[in-house]
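Session log. Operator J.P. requested a structure for one protein chain; no other inputs attached. Running the standard single-chain path with token output.
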Amino acid sequence: MKDNLYCVIMAGGTANRLWPVSRNSRPKQFLPADIFGDSFLRTTYERFLKVVPKENILVVTLGRFADMVRQEIPELSPENLMLEPYGRQTAPCIAYSTYKILKRNPDAIVLTTPSDQEIDDEEAFIEDMKELLGHAAAYPVLMTLGITPRDPETSYGYIQVAGKRSDENRESAVKVKTFVEKPDRTLAEVFCKSGEFFWNSGIFAWRASVIKEELEKYTPEIVSLFEGWEDALDTDKETSFLEKAYSGCQKLSIDYGVMEKTSIAWLYPGHFSWKDLDTWGAVYRYAPEKDKDGNVVIARKSLTQDNKDTMIFSTDKKKVYAVKGLKGFLVVDTEDALLICPCDDKESKDLISGLAMPGFEEFR
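Structure written below.
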């Protein structure tokens, strides 16, 4: 069975919610080692080496990020680096990778994962991945991995299952009832208390043949653009084929396109600590070391007084930071940009969105 196991790492995202550290030209998954340790992409790759054979790990990214992927994973075989011409979210990405794998192995069982998550308990994670693959191998289902909510987090999507979480079903798969987009605080609190909801990890497992059928059923507008994939993929026609397919392809997530509509979605509950550090608010909340006033300082040298619930983050190795009297603020300093705003995901998102205006192109 091991030869039939595959992993697709989706590494094409360009979101810059961790601006100014992440940029459109170097998004979060490629952040250099001196900021977050090993890059998220490299860490994800090494993690899944313990689950599937090395030769069966594929990375999907945008064409302009190809060199960065090669730099992070030099041992990745060229045929396993899949280059999308344009970003079209996860449904087209999964369609592309599904056809690519099916051409190589019609019996493939595939794990599909984001490239930028943080996992604390790796041993438990690996065991859960094996369970997820086992369910996908045994049954014609679309498996997703759910995370038991620790708090009413508003920056994650949620998945409702049929029946409450309990000691009896903590070790088994549960049928999915519905997917829910990021809720407000009040609704998130209701979700957490109900015992019916999990955080949406974005990690999936399925037989390639099963997801192919569900894509055909629920996203025919995408599938039609990939007609002729059998002759084009893994040949010298692939680049021009993808250019044409993606040019006419809408942006669509796999959650909205398939998972919210299918009748064969099941969830396996994860048994590890999971974080999606996609905002500065999340980086602050999950920072391992806060002082007695709730402050986080990640900088070479600092002099701070009378601050509370504030984060100072710097990539500059020369400066000293003297900060006094901030309450609930975020200070992020890089070589060419300085961000100062309330340490709140909505506030920082609203501010950073201004980078789309003319005149800020070099800083995006």
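Operator note: The longest strand covers residues 197-207.
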